[in-house]
Amino acid sequence: MTSRTVSPIKIVNNQIISKNNDDKNKNKNKRNLSTSSTPPQSPSYTAAIKKAKSFVTPNRFSVLSVDESTIENLDVISDNQNEKQLNTTNNTPKTILPPPIFIKGVLNYMGLLNQFKHTIGPNTFSCKSTPTHLKVQTDTPDNYRKIIHLLKEINAQYHTYQLQSDKPLRAVIRNLHPSTPESDITTALEEIGFTVRNVTNVKHHQTKTSLPMFFIDIDPNGENVTDIFSITSILHTKVKIEEPHKKRQIPQCQNCQSYGHTRSYCAYPPICVKCGENHLSSSCTKSPDLPAKCGLCQGAHPANYKGCAIYQTISRKHNNNISSKKAQQPPPHNLNLNINTNPEYQQQQSGSENTPRSPKHKDELLALLQNNRIDIALISETHFINSTHFYLPGFQIFKTNHPDGTAHAGAAIIVKSSLVFFPLPQFQTDHIQASGIQITLNNTPLNIFAVYSPPRHTITLNQFNDFFLTLGHKFIIGGDLNAKNLQWGCRVNNPRGNLLHLTTQNRNFKVHSPPSPTYWPTSPRKRPDILDIFISKIPNSFHSLTTNLNDLYSDHSAILLTIDSAPLAKPKQPSLILGQMDWLKFKSSLDNQCNLKISLKSPNDIDEAVHLLTKSIQEAAWSSSSPMPNTNSSINLPLHIRILISDKRRARATWQRTKYPSDKRKLNNLTNKLKRLLASIRSDNFTKRLVSLSSTDNSLWQTTRKILRTKQSVPPLKKSDGTWAVTDLDKANIFRHHLYSTFQPHNNILTPSQIEKVNLSLSHPLPMTLPPKHIRPSDVEYAIKNSPRHKSPGYDLITAEVATQLPKKTLLLLTHIFNSILRLSYFPVLWKFSIIIMIPKPGKPPDSPESYRPISLLPLFSKIFERIILKRILPIIEANIPNTQFGFRHNHSTIHQVHRLVDKISYTLEKKLICTAAFLDVSQAFDRVWHEGLLFKLKSILPPYYFLLFKSYLENRHFSVRSGFSLSEVSPIHAGVPQGSVTAPLLFNLFTSDQPTTPNTTIGDFADDKALLAIHSDPEIASNLVQNHLNLLSTWYKDWGIKINETKSIHYTFTLRQIVCPPIFLNNVPLPTAQNVRYLGLHLDRRLTWATHTHNKRLALNNRSRQLRYLLTSQHLNLKNKLLLYKLLLKPIWTYGIQLWGAAKKSNLNKIQIFQSKCLRQITKAPYFVSNDTLHKDLAIPTVQNVAKTFYKRTHSKFHSHRNPLITELSTNTIPGDPRRRLKRTWCHDLLI
Q: Which of 86, 533, 969, 970 is most buried as measured by Cβ atoms within 10 A of its Cβ?
C-alpha cells in the first residue's frame, strides 16, 4: 500500500475551507462545495455565497420527508453522492461531519438552545429551522452523541442517521473460491494493514448455494482504507474488489412509517403500517377483512404502498433533484413489498387521434411503452381497417374497428406478450367500439377493455347499460367516451356525461380521472378538459393511482393507471432440455437407473416398464441440464433519447400551461427531433439485423419465418348455449368435446347386417403361426438416428435429440420392450395417449371449433416402434393396395396422379370427345374410420401376431387437447386411424383398398382425394358411365361407414364442344358444377389452358413478394442471400406442377415470367438499360420455359422403370393412345423436345 498526504479540511466560522486552495483548479474531479448549480466564477455564484446563512455540510445522508426540511436536503443528497464518488476516485481522506439531527415539535427554542450550550459548548453546533423541524448540526461525533443522549433524556421527538465513524466501509470481493474460510480472508487483509470487522460469504437467493463472492466490513478509521479497492490478489487468487450496489429505493422507517430515515435512529411515536393508529405494527389487531388505512395520507391503503400520494411526491422531488446530474429515469414499477416483489400491473390509455397509424407515431408509442414499463395500453380512435397490420415487438395487439369498415373510430388494446391473458369478444357497434382481454390479478379474473365512442352518435341510457352488461363482474375500461361531467373533474357537463354518471351511480362503478386535462385543443377559443377516463368495478383491495403522461404528441395526452397487483407471467413450455446439457452425466445417470433384469411377461409388465423408462429419461435429462438464467427482456432507450423525452415532456407541460407560440415552436422542434432520432435508431437496428443475416446459422430462415408465419392467438369460442369460452381451459374442453364427437364412426350409415357380418368374422379364432422375428438393437438405433429432429414431442417430452443420446444399456432395454410387445401382441397404453393442438383453418370463422385442424403429438418411442413394424409389413400388404392409389406410397407423388388425368383430358381434346369427371370430397375421412371394419380387413391380410398387435394398437386410445398452457380432460377415441402416427396412412389405404371399379372409368386416388373420369363422344353416355360407378361407390361407402360430402364434391366436364353434360347424382343429391376445379393443388379448366392456374399463382406470388419486399430490396442484404430467398421462398410457389402447366400458351407463361424478371430486377436494382436476358444469364437463373422443360425431363426419365404400371404408361413420348395431333397445342409430353 502507498501512503498519500493531502491538505486537511478544517471548520472555521461554520464554513469549510481548504488549506490548499490552489489544488482546486488543478483537480478537475474535485466537487464544488456550493449547493448552487451556477458556475463558481459567475456573479450569481458569488452572491449566493454571500447570501448563505445556513450551515453548509457535506453529509451523505438521504433525508427525505414531506416537509421543507426534506426538500432542502434533496440538494444535499445529490452533492453527497458526487462527494462519495470523489472520495472513491481520489482516495482522499476528509473530515466528515456527524449526521444532522432533526427535532420535531420544539416549543421553546431558547430553552433548548441553552441546554445544548450547557451540554457541548456554544461554538460546537449550528441550527436551522423549518416549519416542522429544527435541524441541528454538530461538529464532532462526541458532541453528536451528547446531544442524542440529552434528547433521549427529555423524550424529544427526532430522527437522525448513523455516524460515519460507526459505519464500516463495505466492499465486495469477487472471484474468490466460496470454500475459502472467512478467518483466512480476515488474516490476509489484516496482514496488509486493514482492520476487518466482518467477512460474510454471499449465497444465491434461490438455491442458497455459496457464490464466489464475499462481503467485507472494514474499519473506516484506519489509514488509506479506500486502497482496499486497489487490491488485485488475495490468497494467490486474482480478485476484484468493488463497492456494493446502491439501493435505489427511498428508505422507509418501520416505526413512524415516514420516508428518509430508518427505525434504528427514529424517536417518533410509532404508527401502525396497517391501520394508521399510534402503536407498533406487530401489535396491530386489525382484521384482514377491514380496509387498510395509511398513517401518512389517510388513504385506504397500507402505509408502505408505493402508490401513496406522499411517496409519489417525495419520489418526484428526489428525481427532479438528481435530473440536473443525469437524465431523468423512467418511473419504476411499484412494488408491494408486503405481498411480493413482482412489478405491478400498469396500463396506459391514450385517446390520441391517429396515434398508431404511421411509423413515426409507432416509434413514439413503442418508446412510451418501454420507457414507462407499461404492461397494457388502451388505444382509442385507432382509425384501423380490416387489412391494417400493426406490430410492436414484445406486444400483442387486439383491435376492434368501426362496423362500416372505414378508417375512423375504433379501439385497440396492446398487451405485453409475456403476460398470461385471454382475448375477449369484441363489442362492435356504431356508437361504441371496445376490444378487451382477461387477466388474473390476486386470483381475481379481471376484464380490461379499450373503448371509444364517437361524438356524432346520440347514446341512450339503455345503450350504456347494454354495453356494461357485456363487461363481466370485475372490469376496467379506459378510453375516450366523449363524456364530460363535473364529478370526475371536467370543466362542464354534457348530456352523454350526465347519462354515464347516472349509469355509474346506479351500478356502483368507480370513475378514475386524471388530475390534469387530457384534451388540449389547438384552437385558442377552446379550453382544455378531461375526455379520457377509466371506469372500473374492482375489489376494494386493489389500490390504484391515476396520473397524466405528456410523452405523446397529440391533442390528447395519455393517462396512466397503476394498480398494486402483479399479473401472471407466461410459464415456459415444458421441455427435457432446460439449458446446457451434460450428455455424459445424462448417459451415466441412465446407466445407473436402467435395469435389464425386469420381467416382461404380461401387459401390465410392459406398461410398468414403459412408465419406468420414461420416468428415468426425464429425471436424467432434468438433472443433467443447467437452467438458462433469466434474461432481462426490457429494452432501455439510449441516454440521449431519455434526455430528449424528458425535455419534450417538460416543453409540452410548459406549452399547455402558457399557450405561448414560442413554447409551441419549442415543443414542435423537440417532437420532430425525437421522431427523427427514434426512426434513425429503428433504421440502424434494422440495418444491423439485415447485415448479420446468414443462411449458415439459420438466422435468415428465422427472419423469414417470422415474416411469413403470423402467430395467431385463439379468440373466444362460442359455446352451444351462446356464451363464450374465454380461458385456455374452457377452450381446451370445447375442443375436446368437438373432437370426441368427431372420433366416432358413422353409425347412422352402417347397416345392421354389415355390422353383424364384421363382428362374426372377428370372433372367429386365429390360426397358429410361428412367432415374429425379433427386433435387434441396431434396428432401434437406426430408426432413432433417422427420426426427424425438429418434431414436437408427445406428453413424455422425449425428442429425437434426447433419444440419440441414449446409452447402449437403455437401447437394450428399449429393444427388450419392443420384443415383448411383439411377443404378447400388446401395445402399451402410455404410447396410445396423444396431446392434440388445434391449428386455425384459413378463411374460416375463428369462433367455431369446426374451424380448427387437430394436430396430434404422440410419444417418440411409439413412432420408432411403428417405423420398425412398418418396414416389416410393407412387403406383405403392398399387393393389396390398388395401383390407382398414389397417396402415402414410396415414389408416388401428386404430380404423377395429375399427369394421368391430364393425359386423359389431352386425349379427349385431341379426339374431339367429352371427358366428364366427378371429384369427391370425403367427410372426415381419417378421423371416422370404422375400427371393426378396418380390423376385418387386416385379419385377412396380416399374420395373426401382427393382426393382434394392430388390434391392441387401435383399442383403448385416448387424447387430451392443449390450448395455451392448459390441458383438457382425457377422452377416449372410438374411431379413426391415429393421427400423427407412422402407420395411419397405410391403415387408411388398406381400409379403402377394395373400392369398386368399372372398366369404363378412370380412377385417380390420392389418400382421400378421389377423381372419376369417363370419356365418350356422347355427353349422356359419359355421364351415365360416371353415374354407374358412383352408384357402386355409394353402396360401398354405406357398408363401411364412409360419408361423402355431396355439397363439396364437384361435377366437371372437359371438352372443346359447346355442350353441357347431364347432371350426376350421389345419394340422390346432384353434384354441383364449377367454373374450374382444383385437384391436388392444380387448377384445371374446361379446355386445359392453365389460365386459371397461372393467374392464381401470380396472385400468390404477388402476396408473398409483398411480405418479403423489404428483404429483397434492402441494400444491406447481400445478393447471394437475396437470390437464396427467391429460390427457396418464391420460386417453389410457381414450380409446383410446372411439369404439366409448363406446356401452356406463352401468354399464360408470361404471367410468371414477368414476375420473375421484375423480382430479379428488384433484387439487383438493375437500371432500365439492362435487359432481362442479361439479368437471367448473369444471375444463372433459367427462364420459366427452360425450368418447365428441365423439370419434365427429370420427372419423365423415371417413368419407364417405375414399379406401378399406371405410371409406366406415362413414359411414352406422346399422349398415351397416340391420337392424331389435331390441335395447335403444346402438351406436357412435347416438353421433351
A: 533
